[in-house]
Amino acid sequence: MFDNLTQRLGKVLTNLRGQGRLTDENIKETMREVRMALLEADVALPVVREFIDQVKRKATGEEVMKSLTPGQTLIKIVNDELIHVMGEANEALDLAAQPPAVILMAGLQGSGKTTSVAKLARWLLQQGKKKISVVSCDVYRPAAIDQLATLARDVGVDFIPSSGDEKPLNIAQRAVKEAAKGFAEVLIVDTAGRLHVDEQMMGEIKQLHQTLDPVETLFVVDSMTGQDAANTAKAFNDALPLTGVILTKADGDARGGAALSIRQITGKPIKFIGVGEKTDALEAFHPDRIASRILGMGDVLSLVEEVGRKVDQEKATQLAKKLQKGKGFDLEDFKEQMLQMANMGGMSGLLDKLPGMGEIPDHVKNQVNDKEIGRLIAIINSMTPHERSFPAVIKGSRKRRIAAGSGTQVQDVNKLLKQFMQMQKMMKKMKGGGMKKMMKGMAGRFPGGGMPPGGGGFPF
Ligand code: GDP
Ligand code: MG
Question: Ligand 1 centre from 115 Cα, in Å?
């Protein structure tokens, strides 16, 4: 995500880091390059201008010129300004309304509306909403209604049927009634999009908006369209009062122009970003986290949240209890951790969010990691239950059998046992007060008060 911009800005700011002092000269030079980087990222021109003006103004302030680490100070100014253009803080959904709280989705065809309806439904379920209904007003393409039906079934929310013979407005009215009858807390309404902004579509969505009186009207837009995303958002916002934006396909966007332009151009906050095709690929949009991702400082907070969301809380608690009781951490537990890691999109997905990883090419990241997890799991699968519980019995001939069974070499088995032993040592250390303290600390940070397996002790 935003890799090109990260690389460009990274280079500019690294050059500066080497310089002892900020001078008018090097500020000017640096800002010229930052400007180029932003333009290449397809950030809208007025946003670029404002950005550069602000950074220049702050950078030439007296304190900065005198500061001991001018390079870092400028990086901080750039970071703060990135956060500022993206809207400072995450703006959450506001669903305070007589149920069902209606969320209306608007946007061009192919922007990711239907997918986002499912993602949002899933996200709301995870936030503790119990009953969510979805409905499609896209009567122009029968496949669109089926698509939503399938997605709704996948994420486990109520699907209110509709058909191509009905008028969108009728569907909307009927859906509100049905959702209310079924005691839905939230009703998400999917709509049809066109390839371009046209009058008929705008007329229809305006009518839907009037009829539904939604608490949230979210504009869904493809981030790959760069600054055009901001312009289309503006056109929609002129026609109906948007409450926020969902920026989709950020996973495939190397440039970041849409993320940086939308807020300034429309005045409306980006509330979520879509980061993949699957229904769990939705993240709350946090300007500060995105800024540090862009500056290559990683996004540790999102990572922590993701871990909290995706680990199997029940298994994590089981393991914690087992360890607390003084029972040892065995190979079965180790395998469980590997599986959970694979579950989170593997190491490469996680690594992307860690600081400094922006510069490591994808093929290298992928290579080191996900294969390795699969291999470790295969090796443990080739062990008997007794061996998994008592790894000390794994000696020469057992090692050869396990290696043969998992299609690996004896040295791979040795490596796994070594990694396991390190992990076990760590677990032992945490067993006493450390473990409890760690759990307490984590409880506040993870939704549901859970913790990652083994108190966050992944083997890396
Ligand atoms: P709609 O016409 O606005 O309803 O768009 P859809 O929801 O049908 O999505 C269009 C295409 O974009 C589908 O192939 C989706 O899988 C894909 N898509 C949607 N959101 C994302 C995302 O965040 N990342 C990626 N990579 N693909 C997405
Ligand atoms: Mg659709």
Answer: 6
